[in-house]
């Protein structure tokens, strides 16, 4: 067995979108029988929530969709660009932040916008996975879940 390939999902605070993407990715990997081939983590570009659990609405949507998940928020750091094979920003702002931090020398990670893998983005043009943090209900979180599911499945279709 070869070394596991690795992915890092990055959003702003690591309590909504990126932990959702990590949980969804791990679920898809498990369903496809690929757990021995992939490793995933998530982080945030900001450190405000380091050590905190994901937002309760993220956890509710994961539970509704039958996904068990446990996570403590962490901050994205430069070492992640050499630790992971793929780094996914949840929106263009996250990708820009990652690219600004990227050193001038080559790093291991390929940096992508996760939503660019979403098949629906080809018709809608919406590649950002919008931050649902300020939503008052679960609709934004459910939309985030669906985008992450489509994007992670399509990514694995292409890169596995």
Automatic annotation (TrEMBL):
Lineage: superkingdom: Eukaryota
Gene Ontology MF, one: protein tyrosine phosphatase activity
Location relative to the cell: Cytoplasm
UniProt keyword terms in alphabetical order: Cytoplasm, Hydrolase, Protein phosphatase
Pfam family, one: LMWPc
Positions annotated as active site in the UniProt record: 11, 17, 131
Any one annotated GO CC term: cytoplasm
InterPro entries: LMW_PTPase, Ptyr_pPase, Ptyr_pPase_sf, Tyr_phospatase_low_mol_wt
SMART domains: LMWPc
Domain Phosphotyrosine protein phosphatase I intervals: 5-158
Family from the record: Belongs to the low molecular weight phosphotyrosine protein phosphatase family.
The protein's name in its UniProt record: ACYPI006806 protein
Organism of origin: Acyrthosiphon pisum
Biological classification of the source: Eukaryota, Metazoa, Ecdysozoa, Arthropoda, Hexapoda
């Amino acid at each position: 067995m070869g070394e596991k390939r690795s992915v890092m999902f990055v959003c702003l605070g690591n309590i909504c979108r990126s932990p959702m993407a990590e949980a969804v990715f791990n679920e898809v990997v498990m369903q496809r029988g690929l757990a021995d081939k992939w490793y995933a983590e998530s982080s945030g570009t900001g450190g405000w929530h380091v050590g905190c659990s994901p937002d309760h609405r993220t956890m509710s949507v994961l539970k509704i969709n039958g996904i068990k998940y446990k996570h403590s928020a962490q901050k994205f750091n430069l070492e992640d660009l050499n630790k992971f094979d793929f780094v996914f920003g949840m929106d263009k702002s996250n990708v820009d932040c990652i690219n600004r931090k990227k050193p001038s020398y080559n790093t291991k990670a390929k940096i992508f916008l996760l939503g660019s893998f979403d098949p629906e983005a080809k018709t809608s043009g919406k590649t950002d996975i919008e931050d649902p943090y300020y939503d008052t209900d679960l609709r934004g979180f459910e939309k985030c879940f669906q985008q992450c599911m489509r994007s992670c499945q399509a990514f694995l279709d292409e890169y596995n």
